[in-house]
Amino acid sequence: MPPPHDLFAHLPPDLEPLDPTLDVVFERFFTEPKNEALLRDFLASVLTPRGPIEALEVLGQRLPKRHVGDKPFVVDLRVRFASGEEIIVEMQRYPDEDLTERLLGYGARTYAHQLQPGERHGAAAPVRVIVFLTFVAFPELGLRTAFCLRDHSGRHVLTRKLEVIVVQMPRLAALDTADPQRHSDLARWLRFFQAKSRAAYAALAAESLTMS
């Protein structure tokens, strides 16, 4: 469905949209209450299996600490579903040699903090950490890869209560035009994040009501 009017008609011709991969823009965009429908669509595009997200709560960006001396963690976006499952989303613009360890720290702290003294460990809800990379950090991986705890053979899963999902945005351009991933909702969101011109945004708006 095409947009009802020129997306940029009310803006000066030399004013370009802010880059949505910038931390402050990404966080502000997805935590605005008026944009909750967009946040649900965005999360559904990367989570598998897909399904409607009926209810969610946007949480504070600072991960909780149990002790005063605990290392502080601040994330870009943190959401809790009605089921109790927590989702952490990070937009990573620059290489970081401690990236995987930091993501593990996010997930482990979030999972452990759900438990109250004396409560069964299995009572904690799943935690998923999603990181969007604007560069290729893992050459052997494709566009979207989900990690959980497995044995070294990769055949036996220890638990799916903690999952890390890596999305390497530059991989989108390398996908064959016949690849279903290239035409997925996730691909559309990645094109939004990577758009560099008014024309690119207008093209997205013309093909999707959500993007409009």
Could you describe the 3D structure shown?
- It is a single chain.
- α2 packs across α5.
- The mean pLDDT is about 90.
- The N and C termini lie close together (about 10 Å).
- By secondary structure, this protein is α/β, with parallel strands linked by helices.
- The protein has a 6-stranded mixed β-sheet.
- β5 and β6 form a beta hairpin.
- It is globular.
Content of β-strand:
15-25%
| Mean pLDDT over the full residue set | 88
Largest sheet, strands/sense/barrel: 6 strands, mixed
What structural class do the secondary elements suggest? alpha/beta
> Number of helical runs?
6
Write down the overall geometry: globular
Rg from alpha-carbon coordinates: 18 Å
Number of strands: 6
Q: H/E order of the elements? A: HHEEEHEEEHHH
Runs in which pLDDT lies below 50 for 5 or more consecutive residues are none
- End-to-end separation in angstroms reads 8 Å
* Order of neighbouring strands in the sheet with most strands: 1-2-3-4-6-5
Helix content: 25-40%
